[in-house]
């Protein structure tokens, strides 16, 4: 702004905010739209989480779990998933054995069918995902 | 005990709103809503459109609250957001007539021949009104206005200068402000 444009009187007039009789309604409208946007975001996050969960479950379904006397092994459509699944299973098994729970845990898992164990795992994963989504939406 | 919202500074409220505090943001809306609504009307928006854009501006500000660091005032920050949203809206609706030179109606005057700013602005052309309001109401610089309105810088400067000259003339108390009023002797 050049010096000849600076006019304190005009600046003052622009700085004065007019009063509106419906200010309360305006504030309420903004609050309502904020709440609506928040609900929409929560719904979108839930849908995204659910879709992600379904995809994860579907991918897990493609992995063939089998419990044998030599421990957990996994087979999947891709070599990478196979390797990761098998390594994860072995690490889990060694962790249980080190903590002295190996036999008990595998005894229990052995009595549970492979498919049952899969559904329990999937259920836990979905519950964790849902809890994460709720927590995230609350933070946002 | 928590401090009442009314006692908190805008920067503190914005910080709390950035963390998701809707009550704190509501206080900011209460404080600055009239200024934003007023600015948009001064820029030439009809009341319904002005309120709609003002609400959009506050929603956007809530999303971007973390970006407000308190270098300037919150009022200036939200006004700039609202002004830019309004410009975007009118350019999208092809309602933008920046080159139009047609002037508005003569402003209404009170009993002593004085007009207020809102009335005086009605006497400016749409382009002058926008440029003057963006410069003095929203605090945008001439190059920022030129970029936002897609106009040459020289054109913006002349719109601001002409608009201010008209405003000064119209805001003068007494017979000067009457302008076109004829006195038959």
Automatic annotation (TrEMBL), chain A:
Keywords: Membrane, Transmembrane, Transmembrane helix. This is Uncharacterized protein. The chain crosses the membrane at residues 117-136.
From TrEMBL, chain B:
The keyword Transcription applies. InterPro entries: RNA_pol_sigma-70-like, RNA_pol_sigma-70_dom, RNA_pol_sigma70_ECF_CS, RNA_pol_sigma70_r2, RNA_pol_sigma70_r4, RNA_pol_sigma_r2, RNA_pol_sigma_r3/r4-like, Tscrpt_reg_LuxR_C. Pfam families: Sigma70_r2, Sigma70_r4. Transmembrane segments: none annotated. Gene3D superfamilies: 1.10.1740.10, Winged helix-like DNA-binding domain superfamily/Winged helix DNA-binding domain (1.10.10.10). The keyword Transcription regulation applies. SUPFAM superfamilies: Sigma2 domain of RNA polymerase sigma factors, Sigma3 and sigma4 domains of RNA polymerase sigma factors. PANTHER family: RNA POLYMERASE ECF-TYPE SIGMA FACTO, RNA POLYMERASE SIGMA FACTOR. Belongs to the sigma-70 factor family. ECF subfamily. NCBIfam families: sigma70-ECF. This is RNA polymerase sigma factor. It comes from Brevundimonas guildfordensis. The lineage of its organism: Bacteria, Pseudomonadati, Pseudomonadota, Alphaproteobacteria, Caulobacterales.
